[in-house]
């Protein structure tokens, strides 16, 4: 099985380091979400891993080898960086056939991936007639063409309709379950949470986190309990007696932070507080991500306090 190994990788553009002594490993059998604010260095890292740019120092290898040394690279690594890359005057099928021929991939794979990406009916239409979502599907078809062990996708959900987003989620999960190495960059936190097992997070070219998704969220966002009751006075009083503070929301539900149902459920039950709802709300990836990157976002809006 094949991992992506980024070791002490640096890429400088003039005095500025787009990637700065970056080290991480992407392992097979799971989907790794690749996150970071605008300009954090994700695309640069992907370009370096694919040999599209030369590092200033350090290495990025696939299965222990630099991408440019791979023979028939599409049979080892499939990538989607720019969905606009296909030539507009070619048909989708011809685009894939040309890629297949240059990498000694059987021509039947073109039809298989067109089918798999839902493009079979548009296969003989020119790419310039494709919608953004169809171009995205064609880019994903090209990435899958060589049945590669390693798949790198930059914002694969871009332009996809809701059905397409559900489809890509299932596809990524399946590719990982087949033992492939799958690295997916995205700005969509809900999306990433729905398909990633592991996260690599960059900020200003440096590694901010390399951790399982669940650990990332649990370590940054404390759980809270959501409550609805017909007797708010009893609720607030009981909680206060045990040192908990309940926050009321406009729709009438209450939140108690930094606690779980197991902790306060018995207290409320013993006190006879009538409950309509009592649930633990887990933290979201978006909350955890914003917590981590708040200090690292180059283009962050000024905070309310700073401008007040
Ligand atoms: N060819 C280039 N010449 C000069 N600077 C560049 C070049 N490519 C990227 N950069 C700079 O490197 C930094 C990292 O850019 P990169 O595109 O890798 O970030 P990213 O994490 O992919 O951002 P986004 O989420 O906005 O796509 C940015 O400051 C960018 O301006």
Q: Could you give the distance between the termini? A: 54 Å
- SS class: alpha/beta
Measured by DSSP, the beta-strand proportion falls in 25-35%
Run of helices and strands: EEEHEEHHHEHEHEEHEHEEHEHH
Heteromolecules bound: adenosine-5'-triphosphate
Mean pLDDT: 92
Give the low-confidence spans: 303-308
Q: Specify the biggest β-sheet.
A: 6 strands, mixed
Query: What's the architecture of the largest domain in CATH terms?
Result: 3-Layer(aba) Sandwich
Individual helix count: 11
**Can you tell me the CATH topology of the largest domain?**
Rossmann fold
CATH homologous superfamily grouping of the largest domain:
P-loop containing nucleotide triphosphate hydrolases
Q: What global shape is seen? A: elongated
InterPro entries: AAA+_ATPase, ABC_transporter-like_ATP-bd, ABC_transporter-like_CS, P-loop_NTPase
Domain ABC transporter: 4-229
Protein name: ABC transporter ATP-binding protein
Pfam families: ABC_tran
Structure description:
By secondary structure, the protein is α/β, with parallel strands linked by helices. The chain has 2 domains: 4-212, P-loop containing nucleotide triphosphate hydrolases (Rossmann fold, 3-Layer(aba) Sandwich), CATH 3.40.50; 222-281, Alpha-Beta Plaits. The protein is 34% helix and 26% strand. The protein has helices at residues 42-49, 92-102, 108-116, 132-144, 162-177, 189-195, 213-220, 232-241, 261-270, 285-293, 304-307, and strands at 4-13, 16-26, 30-35, 57-62, 77-80, 150-154, 181-185, 198-203, 206-212, 224-229, 246-248, 254-257, 275-281. The chain has a 6-stranded mixed beta sheet, sandwiched between helices. Strands 11-12-10-13 form a 4-stranded antiparallel beta sheet, with helices on one face. A hairpin with a 5-residue loop joins β11 (246-248) and β12. The longest helix has 16 residues, at 162-177. It is elongated and about 75 Å long. Residues 303-308 have low confidence and may be disordered. The structure holds adenosine-5'-triphosphate. GO terms for molecular function: ATP binding. It holds the Pfam family ABC_tran. It comes from Streptomyces vulcanius. This is ABC transporter ATP-binding protein. Keywords: ATP-binding, Nucleotide-binding, Transport.
């Amino acid at each position: 099985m094949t991992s992506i190994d980024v070791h002490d990788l640096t890429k400088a553009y003039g005095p500025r380091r787009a990637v700065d002594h970056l080290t991480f490993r992407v392992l097979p059998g799971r989907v790794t979400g690749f996150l970071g604010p605008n300009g954090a260095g994700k695309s640069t890292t992907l370009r370096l891993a694919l040999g599209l740019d030369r590092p200033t120092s350090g290495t990025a290898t696939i299965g222990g080898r630099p991408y440019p040394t791979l023979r028939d690279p599409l049979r080892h690594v499939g990538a989607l960086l720019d969905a606009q890359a296909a030539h507009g005057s070619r048909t989708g099928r011809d685009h894939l056939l040309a890629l297949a021929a240059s990498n000694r991939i059987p021509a039947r794979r073109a039809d298989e991936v067109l089918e798999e990406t839902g493009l079979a009916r548009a296969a003989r239409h020119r790419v310039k007639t494709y919608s953004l979502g169809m171009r995205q599907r064609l880019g994903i078809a090209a990435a899958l063409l060589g049945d590669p062990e390693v798949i790198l996708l930059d914002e694969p959900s871009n332009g996809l309709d809701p059905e397409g987003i559900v489809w890509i989620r299932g596809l990524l999960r399946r590719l990982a379950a087949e033992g492939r190495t799958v690295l997916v960059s995205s700005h969509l936190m809900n999306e990433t949470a729905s398909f990633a097992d592991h996260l690599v997070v960059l900020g200003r070219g440096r590694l901010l986190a390399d951790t399982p998704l669940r650990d990332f969220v649990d370590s940054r966002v404390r759980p809270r309990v959501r409550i609805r009751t017909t007797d708010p006075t009893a609720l607030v009083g009981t909680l206060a007696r045990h040192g908990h503070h309940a926050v009321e929301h406009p729709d009438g539900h209450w939140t108690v932070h930094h606690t779980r149902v197991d902790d306060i459920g018995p207290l409320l039950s013993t006190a006879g507080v009538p409950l309509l709802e009592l649930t633990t709300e887990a933290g979201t990836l978006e909350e955890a991500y914003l917590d981590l990157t708040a200090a690292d976002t180059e283009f962050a809006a000024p905070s309310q306090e700073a401008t007040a």
